[in-house]
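re: ur question from earlier - yeah i can do the single chain one, its not a big deal. heres the input i used so u can compare w yours
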Amino acid sequence: MTIGRIIKALFIAYLLGVLFWAGAYFAYIIAVENANSNFTIPSFGGYIWIGQSIVSLFLLFIIAGFCYLSFFRVDENKLATIKWRFIFSPKIREGHNIAVGCQQGNWARVYGPGWRFIPFIKWFGEVVVVTSPMEKDF
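and the output i got, formated as tokens:
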């Protein structure tokens, strides 16, 4: 396992941990109505469920955004490659065309048809879809 993959795995684990603990914190705040707490959910005239619904919608929005940024689909008879452009990733060495590990540039891996999950790929990279060479008539 290369250093780039280890850094990528640790970064993803960190982001997932932040999402988990943020969700756990908000669930704790919702479950425990403590009058002495610095953070209180607005009651909207005694209707605490409205404040809980707003917090739940906020968490749902964060989860939906994570899914949108992480999943992509490759259509039938198409192939996809990834062009990684995360700012803290190392640049490709001079004279090289394919990125190795988490380097910025075109990844060597080719993805076939179907759904794929790469955390935050639409934010830190670009999915390049091309027509499969097998589709062309000869």
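Residues 71-135 form one domain. not sure if urs matches, ping me
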